[in-house]
Amino acid sequence: MIQGGCRCGEVRYTLPFDEMPRVYCCHCLDCQTWSASAFTQQVIFAEGSLVANGPIVIFDLVRADGAVSRQHVCGVCHTRIFNTNTKRPGIAALRAGTLDRSNEIVPVAHIWVKRKQPWIIVPEDVPQFEENAPPAKFASILIGYEA
Amino acid sequence: VIEGGCQCGAVRYAFEAPLPPAYCCHCDECKKQSASAFSMSVVIDFARLFVVGEPKTDEGVTYTGKPKLRFFCGGCGTRLWHRTGNSEAVTLKVGTLDDASGISPRGHLWVSRKQPWIVLDPSLPAYDTQPVDVQTWRAEL
């Protein structure tokens, strides 16, 4: 099991991974605002597989295309734990900086690098995409092999 | 004029250029709060900020035990700026700027907790933890 939690410790969670999961970075402008930093770090998982304790609250944001991005956030310190989107039922994206072992993260892909801050250097052997990655290609990167 | 704000638009701010120098903090608390790899901030006198909307606050303590107020949007939870003690300066969170495309940090804190793939400019100051007087360090970047 992999464990994580929010900044203040009120929300703790487990995910059924044996090892550190595969993380990608998104450098889009929304992700810069959400993180209040330079990019987000995310792990795709099946929504029901995360088991959390603590006061998780929901912030919904209606996107330009009508889809609703639902942020699952600690109600005390407002750390973002994971998000879902009505366009992708059943699939959730963990905010990977909340993992207890987040200092070990080495991302396997970077998307929206056209918005990337210029000082951040993506290693040459790591796939990067100007905007979103093609879904099948992205899935194979996140799984770790060609499906 | 430089502008920024939260995700939902309930809090907006503006200030006259120039943008102060930025720094990154790679500590575990900043990773959790950003839910990402590090926090990134600029130090700015609060009097320079023109704020529309009313951020909420929560209270905490800094690494050295000083009281800290954290300002965030109550509508969407976006982190906006932090204030230590009764300082006139705040640490404004870079990701909330409307345009951070040209920004480059001038220093890094807590690189002992940095994710290994992040390459730092070797000419920049980088601390395993942080300087004893971090407030002066930030202000003089």
Describe, in plain words, how this protein is organized in 3D.
The complex is a heterodimer of chains A (147) and B (141). The longest helix of chain A has 9 residues, at 135-143. Chain A has helices at residues 29-35, 135-143; strands at 2-5, 12-15, 24-26, 40-46, 51-53, 56-62, 68-74, 80-85, 91-95, 109-111. Chain A has a 7-stranded mixed sheet with strand order 6-7-8-9-4-3-10. Chain A has a 3-stranded antiparallel sheet with strand order 1-2-5, with no helix packed on it. Helix content of chain A is 11%, strand content 33%. With 147 residues, chain A is mainly beta. With 141 residues, chain B is mostly beta strands. Helices cover 9% and strands 35% of the residues of chain B. Chain B is built from 2 helices and 10 strands. In chain B, a hairpin with a 5-residue loop joins β6 and β7. Chain B is globular and about 40 Å long. Classes of the chains: A mainly beta (147), B mainly beta (141). The interface between A and B is large, with 44 and 43 residues.
Task: Give a quick rundown of the structure.
By secondary structure, chain A is mostly beta strands. Chain A contains two helices and ten strands, in the order E-E-E-H-E-E-E-E-E-E-E-H. In chain A, strand 6 and strand 7 form a beta hairpin.
Give the amount of beta strand of chain A, in percent. Answer: 25-35%
The arrangement of helices and strands of chain A along the chain is EEEHEEEEEEEH
Number of helices of chain B: 2
| Mean pLDDT level of chain A | 95
Q: How are the strands of the biggest sheet of chain A laid out side by side? A: 6-7-8-9-4-3-10
Strand residue percentage of chain B: 35-45%
Oligomer: heterodimer
Q: Residue-averaged pLDDT of chain B, rounded?
A: 95
